[in-house]
Each structure stands twice: as C-alpha cells, then as structure tokens.
Amino acid sequence: MKFTLPIILVAVTAGLMTLALFGAGHSSGTVGIAAGSAVFSTKASTPEQGLNNLLADVQRRNWDRAYSALSTTSAGDRQSFIQDWTGSDGSLRSFSSLEGFQARPLHATNDDAQMRVRLHWTTPVGPIEDVRDFHLIREGGTWKVAWPKMQISSVPAQIIPVTYLRWDLVSGSGSDEWGSKNVDAPHVRIISMNAVDSAEGAVVMGEVVNEDTIPAFVNVNAALVDGAGKAIDDESSFDKIDHVLLPKQVTPYRIDFPNINLKNVKNVRMDVKATLVPASADPVIGVMNQKVVSDVQGKSILQGDLMNESGQTVNIPHVIASFYDNNGKVIWVSDGYVNRALLPQSGQPFAVEIPKSLAGKVQSFHVVVNQYSLVRS
Amino acid sequence: MERTTVNSVQSYSRPIPLIAIILVALAVHGPLLMMQLPAGSFDANFHMFFASHYAHHWFNPWNEKWFAGFSQTTYPPLTHQWIALLSNVVGLKMGYMLVQLIAVLLLPVGVFRFARIWVEDRAASYAALGSIFLGALAFLVYQAGQLATVASAALYLNALPYFYEWITESSGRSLVKGVAVSLAAAAAHHVTLIFGVVLFAGPVLWVAFFDARDERVSGSSAGVLSRAAVFGVAVAAGVGIVLLPYWLAILQHPIHQIPIPHDSRANFLLNSTTAINYFVIPYGALILALPFIFLRGASSRRLIPLLFGFWLTFIFGLGGTTPLPRWLLGRAYDILTFERFTFWATLMAMPLVGVLAVEILDRFQAKVAVALSLAAVGTIGTALWWLSANPYRPTGSMNVEPVIAFLNRDGHDTYRYVTLGFGSELSKVSTYSSAGSVDGDYNSARLLPEMTHYGSAQLTNAKFYGSAGMASLRAMLEHANRYGLKYIFVHDSYYEPLLTFAGWRKIETFNNGDITAWSKDDVPPAHRIDSDAIPAPWQGLLWGILPMAVSLLAIFLELLLPEGRRAKMPVGVPVRAERAEQHSVA
Fold first, then answer.
1. Which residues pair with A70 in a beta bridge?
2. Which residues in chain B touch residue A320, judged by CB atoms under 8 angstroms apart?
3. Best residue in A21, A31, A61 to probe B by mutation, most B CBs within 10 Å?
4. d(CA B546, CA B58)
5. Angstrom distance (rounded) from CA B26 to CA B75
6. Which of A24, A165, A245, B20 might form a disulfide with A210, Cβ 3.0–4.6 angstroms?
7. Which of A2, A4, A21 lies nearest to residue B267, judging by beta carbons?
8. Architecture of domain A166-280 in CATH?
9. All CATH 3.10.450.100 domain ranges in chain A, comma separated
10. What is the per-residue pLDDT across B76-114, written as a single tens digit (0 to 9) for each?
11. What ipTM was estimated for this complex?
C-alpha cells in the first residue's frame, strides 16, 4: 500500500494530464492577450501542425520562436515579419490581437503545401476576419512557413499645404460638454429611410444630410413600434454613420435591431439629433477604383482604393457605403474598417461586403470615409 | 556547547505553543497588512465597495452603483459587514486590513486544530507554523485579495475538529460550537463550505468511521454516521436560514450567463506564465515535499482519507490541466475559479508536511531547521516578489481621485458612467463616487443582457476577453441612451477608436492625460431600471442580522465554552497512533 497507492495516484494524475492535452478534456485557450510559452508543444510533422505552431506563437507574441520556425527560403527580415503581424503607424492592426484561426489545405505534395487560413482578429472596433494563404515547405522532416516579403510603403519628405476649410467653436460657458448647446442646432435632415429584414433581424437604413452652413455632430436613433403603439426596441446608428457632417455633406446610416422581424412592426420612429461642433475638412480621403466583384470566398464585395490626399496620417480609416437600386432607393448600407494606416499621399485598398440576395439589385453606390487619427484624438 | 545542543534538541522535540505561532503570523503578516499591501490586490477594492454599501445601508442590500442596480445578497456578507463596522472607527481600507489580519491569524489556529485530527501535537504545530508562510496564502491575500475565501477557510478548519469530536465522542458542546463556526464560515463564503463538505469534511468523516470501526474512539461506526448526518442537517438548515436571501436570489436568477474565461481554468502545460502563477508560486517549496506527502499519506491507514482529500483538491487546483474538474463539476466548472482549490490543497497537505518536519528535524536538527526556515521564507518571499514580477499583476497605482471628483460635481451623477482600462480601480471609483455605473466587478450579480450574453467579465477589462469582451462593451455602448450612460473614463487608448466611431468625444483629461473623460451628447439622464431582483425589506433585515449574529455567537461560544484539554501524544510519534487508547482530540 505504501508504494502502490502513490504510484496509482501519480499514474492517474499523469493520465489525466495527457488526456487534457490530447483527449476529450482539451482545454480552450487562455483569457486575454496570451503571453508566455507552452511547456508542451507538438512537432511540426504535418503542414497543418507547422502552420498551427507558427500561428500559436504569433498569438502569444512569441516572436523569436515564430521567426526561427520560418523556412530558410523566407524573404524579409525579422522586423518586417513582426510588423506584418503587429501593424504600424497606429493602424487598426497595431491594436489587434490574433484570437483564433482555421486552416484548410489548398494543395499539398510531399515537400510543399499551400494552406488557406481564416484569421480571427479581435480589435477595438469589433471582430475582423482575414483570409490569407500560406506556403509551407518541408525542411529536414519539419514543415515550415515560407514567409513572403512584405511591401512597406514609404513616403518621401515633402511639404503638403493645408488649404481646406476649418470651423472652430468658441464656447462662452465653462462647461465640460463637447459642442455647443446654447446656440441653434445645425439643421440636419433624414433624406431617405428604408426598413428591411435581414438574417440577423430588422435593419433601418438611409441617408442624412447637413443642410446648414456650419458643421454638425449627428446621431440617428430609431424606435420600432408595434400595432398597439408600444415601442418594441430602440437602437442607434452607433458606428454605422459618419457622425461629423460638414455643411451640405451626406452620410449613410444603418441601425440594426437584432432578432426582430418587421412583420411585428407597425411603425418606425426616427429621431436625428445634431449639435454644433468644431470640424475640419482635412484630412481629405479620396475613394477610387470602386467596383462590385466576388472575392476568393465567393462573397459579393465592393472594393476600391482609399487615397490620403493630405499631409497627416489617418490611423484607422472607416468606409461606409450605401447601395442604391435602379430607383435610387437605399437598399443596403455596409461598412468596414481598414487594417493598415493611410499614410500621407498614400493609398490602401478597402472592401465591404454586400449581402448575396441584394448584390444583383445594386445599381450604384456612394462611399464616405470616416476616420480616427491619433493626433486629433 | 554541549548544553546548547541539549537545549536545541529539547526545543525541537516539543510542540510550538499556539500563542507563539499566532505571534509569528502577526509578525509576518501584520506589517504587510498595516502597510496595506493587499490594497493593490485584484479583489480588495471589490470587498471595500461591498463594505461601503453596508456601512451606509446596512439593511438594504440593493446597490444602485453597479450594473444599474444589483443585489448584494448574491455574495455572503460576513467579511464585508465586519469591515463596514470597523470602517466607522478606522476607515474602509484599514477595516479591510484588520479583517484580513484576523482571518490570517485564525488560519494557523485552524490548521493546528485540523492537523491534530491526523497527527500529534508537535507535527500539528509545525503544520500551523508552516501555514503562515504558504505561497498560496500570500497569493490569495496579497495578489488575488480573496478575503472571504481565506476567512471562510480559516473558520471552516476551526469547525472541523468540533465535527470530529461530535461524531466520535457525541460531545454536545462540540456540536453547538461546530455548527456555529460552520455557519460563520458559510456567512463569509458559501463556496468554501460547499466544497469543504466534500474535500475537508469527507476525509474527516472517513477517518472517524475508521476510528470507530477499529475502536480507537468510543462511538460506533453507525453512531459516527448518524451523528454526522445530524451535524450535516443542522449546518444545512442553518446555512439555509442564515443565507436565505442568497438562496432566494440564486433560485430566482440562476447563473445562466455565458462562461467567462479565467486563467486558473487553463491548461498549465500550455502556458508557462499560468503555470508559474497558479502552481509554482502557490505551492513554492511544498513542491519538494510532494513525494513525501504521497508516500507518507499512503503509509498509514488513518492518513489515506487525508491523502485522497489532498489529491482530489490538488487535481482541482490544476484547473484545465486535467479534465477531471470539468467532468465532476459540469457547468459549475465554467463559473468557478480554481486558485482557491490550490489554497485548500496546501492546507490539506500541512499535516503531512508537519510530519515531514518532525522526522527530518529529529534526524538533522539545526541544519534542517535552517533549511526549513529558508524554504518557508523563500516560499512566501517568492510569492511577494511575484506581486511585482507577474505580467498579469493588478494595475494598482492609478490616481482615480479626479474621476471621483468629476462624477461628484455639477450633477454629473445624474448620468451613469463606465471606466475602461481601470482594472480593480473601478471598485474604488464606485465606492467613493455618488454616480452609478452599468459596469461592476462581480460577475455573478450581473443581469443586464449586454453583459450576460457574452463570455466576458468587467467592461473595464473588455479587451482582455477578446472579441467577446469587445462585443459586450459594444452592446452596452449601443444602449447608452437606455441606461443614461453618458460618461466614459479611459485609461487605455486601445478603446479610443471605438468611442470615436461610436459618437463619444473627449471632453477632459486628468493626470496629465493618463485618464481621459469622454461624453456623448444626446444621452438622457439615468433613470431607475426596474428589476425583479430587488430583495424584499424582510430579506434586508435577515441579511443585516443573521450573518453577523452567527459570527458573534461563534465568538461567544468559543469564549464561554472553552476546549477540554487534549491528552498528550507520546513524544516521537508524529502520526496519530492507530491504537485506541491514544485517541484524543481538541
């Protein structure tokens, strides 16, 4: 008994640990931004395992191990490899963490393989999904990722004159409110509204215009009302609107009502609130080469390029697009954040998704670009 | 020289007096607590927040300051109410430290008395002395701030010898005292009592059954079981009554929220930092004693129940490193955190560690005394060093006074607020400001769907819960108008892009930009959110009277009905003899 029982207990403990590593009780990932290294890790004897090991190290920001596990044929240095994952210039990617990934092979031979990975990023503005292809090579019995060279845009030194309009606000009160409450609010108007059902629930969308000669800070709220006149739900446009509107500027808006079907809705109460605020037309971001296409996953997307025409970095560009049918009615509003920063006088591609059922009805579209800049924040 | 040796041998062969052990505990932990070291721990501000509410509204457990209103009957109140009482004299923070100090001083007493069920006095005294230096204790007190867990465990350990006495000797005095102390333990922390029944009381019942069967005690096996049932029924009924508002609250709103990730549930083999935090630091030098614990625990039939209890608790403390806790606990696995099991495992190991100390001291004397002292000091020292070395340490150095001042002026408290990146300082802001928040630092009390539908905890720590955390924050911000959520205080620029795109604007900066205040223009003033979770006034009365009453009853019973003297064990027999005539217990 003196030795038998301890041996049994130790053996059971070891067995349970093994089971947790490989079996039914496999534990999910740790909370938060993972750090530290695994006490136990598996050998990259398959392309899947090689890619999993690399991405697990990227998740843990274990850069030394991740970089050392790359194929010798990889291009680029350690710094550019890290920058590819962590972003730069205060871009959305630099705020993001790789939360998960799903890989599937595209093709594989004995010595090389092509894998397509769906990367799940957690970001300050919500989850973002990326699809990326990886090339793996077998070196000495171990599968390693061949890392491609990253194109890093560089901007030559130059002076950019600022000629755009700017509105300052002189507030007489010492209050800590933003904007001005003691002057007439700017005149803004909802110029279109459309309510539709989607897979996630009801959606109210349309466009708002600032009809005034001063800038406005705008919020659109909507309440769904049933047949008895009772409010079913009230929601706001949140981030699916460009809140700061310059004079005569139009923005799309979209308000989501999750898990609500329009057949239960009798009426929609719209409410637009505007406040006079300081604003600037700078930075100006141009939208070019827009077209509706299908991506590698077969989804309909509107893609194009953003061009920063000003002299300051736009850290996080946000694209909001309204789509019209042949009657000029807004049939969908879609938005998307751009991972990389828009450097002065530089461009970045963007893409926003269109529901498959609506893609065929889209006749035209209008894109506005909202932005977050560290220097302004 | 010869004389010195003789004295040292004699001193090693006697139990250490309990009063000396308590003084050592006071000497080690007293200064750390008076320096308010736990004030920076994860949960200290949470406990002070609850205590602050009791200090102002003793008989009204409905607290409007978190989650747009929640009931404090969702957490056993004893430690908070004692802090609230003391805060009238010494202030909240020092009140917390004093209650924590009392818990820390009660712990070695409890370990000593618990250990005497299994081993003789000398080993028990070493066990008690060792418990002062446990890494797990330092972890819970100074890093996690789990006041209630420590207090409840200390009380529970003190109740178990009465349980043993009652079931083996049919001592009515022990029954009354045991039940009273158990109820006080439950009033401090219900989870400790629930798991303690299986992990601590189970082995005690088991060994009492063996003792009765082998006629080492006067009672019969059937008598042991029947008296255990009486004790169990008495405690269950008492806990049912003392914590009645808690049970009503939990029955009305069972915890259905999406599981919140916690590192103590991770597989330690897959993350070295987690392994250090939840295994190496809490166990410290005890890791070296593990082989002895297993071998010696299996060597005596009386110790096998203790060994099994330790092993099971040890396995639970490993969290997701083994699948056993998930299998046995089911859904509760995703609600519990597992560092407390490690603490309990170290407490259960202490009787065997006491035996180890006796055996090697008898053999090597002064050299081993030095080595054991170094191991003990090294263990607690490492745990204290880890407070600053731990990458997950709490952010305790933030000055939140300007935020509190902002909320308390110019009618800002007519709106609700959220902090982002404040960690446990959220509780401090809530304690001292008059405004309410939709966030809060107690997961089990949350009822707002914006929080319970996502697998994340506090909004202030949203980013650490990944997409689930940010989705929860986003859902809350989307409903800002509904809750009167106008002000957001940011201590982490990570959140600024979301606030900017969602329509909040920066209005003020504090501490040279360390904290920024953000506001949204069209938010209406906050109004009271209707809830079916508001306790009835009679529940507030019960909650304000019974938990405190059972703790006072336990104190009075300890004073009025002192322990009988325990027969001395033969010197040199570290493990309690298995012969009937040598049985005695405190």
1. A145
2. none
3. A31
4. 12
5. 28
6. A245
7. A21
8. Sandwich (2.60)
9. 42-146
10. 999 999 999 999 999 999 999 999 999 999 999 999 999
11. 0.89
